[in-house]
Amino acid sequence: MAEAQHTWWSDSQVFKQPRIWLIFVLGMISGFPWVMIGSVLSAWLQDAGLSRSTIGFFGAVIGVYSVNFLWSPLIDRINLPFFGRRFGRRRSWILFCQAIIAACCFAMASLDTSQILTAIGVTALLIATASATQDIAIDAFRIEQFSEQENRLQSAGAGMATAGWWTGYSGLGAIPFFLVDGISFSWQDAYILLGCLVLLLSSVVLFVREPRYQQTPIDDNGAPQSVSEQIVARINEVVISPINEFFQRSGFKLALSILCFIFLFKLGEAFLGRMSIVFYKEIGFSNDQIGTYSKLVTWWVTIVFAIFGSLVNLRLGIIKGLIIGGIAMASSNLMFSWIALVGPSEPLFLSAVLIDGFTSAWSTVAFVAFISLLCHRTFTATQYALMASLGSLGKTILASYSGVLVDALGGNWAIFFAITALMIIPSLLLLWRIRHHLFELEQRSQGGSV
Question: Which residues cross the membrane (predicted)?
Fold first, then answer.
């Protein structure tokens, strides 16, 4: 009966809480590195004359997001020396990774595409690795801002995290494009600026507190005595237990279905995103137009609709939000097919960005909230990293062949984007098949049992 008393007004009050705006800032920190290894890197390589296939394969560095679960137990259980005592477990890992990202940006500024292409790839890989590592701590930080009795508010947290992510990726990410076209910045100069902005964002982490609701400690059931027993117990604690707990709680068939859905859901969006900058430049848009529409407009659209989407998900529920958002997300890809047929039309570009920003924000908020909902508080970082990594696997490894697909289609962008729209079908069919089990899981979680 308590759920029926929730109204749009009462749900919206959560956005007045300081912890929600802290999640927004952490979302910026999470999204910003994608500028360095995504849009800016793609534009730099495109201007340097590299092929679509080569640019697509450079995107494979993002594959580390798909395997960060391998070291997620470290973030869940280990305090960094010095940093851990001074800043706490979550913040110390974030600050450590931010320092690595900033250093790599400054290193990237000294490289040249005509001479040291391998070094650019290695540096991008280091940025991606540090970013994927800090995301583990940031996601755990976000989830632990809410008690188990507040799990329904994970949609609000996901909305602000999504808005923050796009602020870092699109809002701050637009700056290099304007500077390269406007005042003749080189792409190397842009990386110096990006490094300085990383340090600026890092300073915010110094003044926040550790999560309000700490992770639940593991029951040791008596400490093992021998060294071998301690090693086995440690492996079980950080690797086996998080996976075992998820499968026991959900049941094997449902757990496997959930993981398959997570793998497939964002595949089409990833194929589109990997080639979007290349498409914009090939079709005839300038860096200024890309910065304005693809970055700034997308930024504001995403912020508005991420918050709106979180409110809708609070009312409809996360599972219904996933189904509706997924259909809308896939349909919006057809707008880019239209641009491919018409040519560099600014009004059409604006329309496509508005529609894509809306649908992407809604679906992403539902997707992030869905994964957050599945995490047990004893293994917050590890379980979220495992599922988010699985979601990134299709986005990173398979989407690295997006350039190959475009080349195989003879550069027919209209057909390429139509194919990306169809990629959503398997995941939605799977989601529909298990929807009743997920509705029950959602109801149990709102009662604080997860």
Answer: 20-44, 50-71, 92-110, 116-137, 158-178, 190-208, 254-277, 297-314, 321-342, 348-372, 384-401, 413-434
pTM over 0.85: no
Contact (Cβ atoms closer than 8 angstroms) between residue 262 and residue 391: yes
Residue 116 lies in a domain: yes
Domain with residue 86: its CATH number is 1.20.1250.20
Could you tell me how far CA 377 lies from the centroid of its own chain? 21
Domain ranges, residue 115? 12-214+234-446
Q: Is residue 221 part of a domain?
A: no
The tens-digit pLDDT sequence of the chain (450 residues) is: 344 455 555 556 667 777 888 888 999 999 999 888 888 888 888 887 777 777 777 777 877 887 787 787 778 777 787 766 777 788 889 999 999 999 999 999 888 877 677 888 889 999 999 999 999 889 888 887 776 666 666 777 777 888 888 888 878 888 888 888 767 788 888 899 999 999 999 888 888 777 665 555 555 555 555 555 655 666 666 667 788 888 888 788 888 888 888 888 888 887 887 778 788 888 888 878 887 887 778 778 877 877 777 777 667 777 777 888 888 888 888 889 999 999 888 899 888 888 888 888 778 888 887 887 787 777 777 788 788 778 777 666 677 778 788 888 888 999 999 998 898 888 888 888 887 777 776 666 555 434
Number of domains comprising the chain: 1
List, as one string, the DSSP characters of 162-218. Answer: HHHHHIIIIITTHHHHHHHHHS---HHHHHHHHHHHHHHHHHHHTTSPPPSSPPPPP
Contact 157, 23 (CB under 8 A): yes
